[in-house]
Write a structure and sequence with these properties.
GST_UstS-like_C; Glutathione-S-Trfase_C_sf; Glutaredoxin; GST N-terminal domain-containing protein; 9 helices; binds glutathione; Glutathione_S-Trfase_N
């Protein structure tokens, strides 16, 4: 089985920087699944996914990264959506490894909950810090696409939408509190460790780390590779 991972191109070099593609990058690395990565410029995502026969998302953006193409005995099948990809990789890899992205029955529920809280609470301040900087790490056509689409979505220029950076950092410090509490409790728990479930990493950690990486990579706007 050959896997091709579709990530989003940036001037930071061969790194995952988007909070969504980071999750897939972590799944592939954690499970040590051999794969090739193809970095797509934003305006090329839809064309690429259509050519692979990926059905459009019924809600929201039709074609997104992460996506993977899986080649098995000359047949190719491809899918998008980070959670669907994580489940697929975990299931298909189970015979090769004792590592699991969802290591126990509660891991999927925990991941869904962390994703929902991140989307509802953490996304707003992190996006306001990261999105104005993402503009500067994109390739020229990605940059043009990103500025145009986000300006349309927000109904105003990106910098106006982002507002005061200091307020966004203050809100982030406040909103990250629940995750700090969860991680401190896990560290002090019976199986103490740095992950939401203590000593065992799982998809919930990958969701949270995606946001930290987004903040970090968005700040690498000088075009130097740190991969
Ligand atoms: N629910 C999707 C969200 C993926 C997503 O929104 N990806 C963004 C990059 S962070 C994207 O590909 N956007 C394409 C566009 O803006 O046209 C997932 O979890 O994979």
């Amino acid at each position: 089985m050959e896997i091709e991972f579709f990530d989003i191109l940036s001037k930071n070099g061969p790194v995952s920087w988007s909070p969504n593609t980071v999750k897939t990058r972590l799944c592939l690395n954690y499970l040590a699944i051999p794969h090739k990565t193809t970095y797509l410029s934003y305006p090329d995502i839809a064309k690429n996914h259509k050519s692979l026969g990926i059905p459009p998302n019924p809600k929201g953006l039709e074609f997104t990264c992460p996506a993977i193409a899986v080649k098995q005995s000359s047949k190719v099948f491809a899918l998008q959506e980070s959670l669907a990809i994580a489940k697929f990789l975990d299931e298909t890899n189970s015979s090769n490894s004792d590592r699991k992205i969802f290591p126990n029955p509660g891991a999927l529920s925990l991941a869904l909950l962390v994703q929902r809280v991140v989307d509802r609470i953490l996304n707003s301040p992190v996006a306001k810090i990261a999105i104005p900087k993402v503009v500067d790490i994109l390739d020229p056509s990605g940059r043009e696409y990103f500025i145009r689409t986000r300006t349309e979505w927000f109904g105003m220029p990106i910098d106006d939408w982002a507002g005061d950076l200091e307020i966004a950092w203050k809100n982030l410090a406040r909103d990250v509190d629940i995750f700090s509490k969860m991680l401190v409790e896990a560290a002090n728990g019976p199986e103490g460790g740095p992950f939401f479930m203590g000593s065992v990493p799982s998809y919930a950690d990958f969701v949270f780390v995606g946001y930290i990486v987004w903040l970090k990579e968005a700040n690498e706007a000088d075009g130097e590779s740190n991969g």
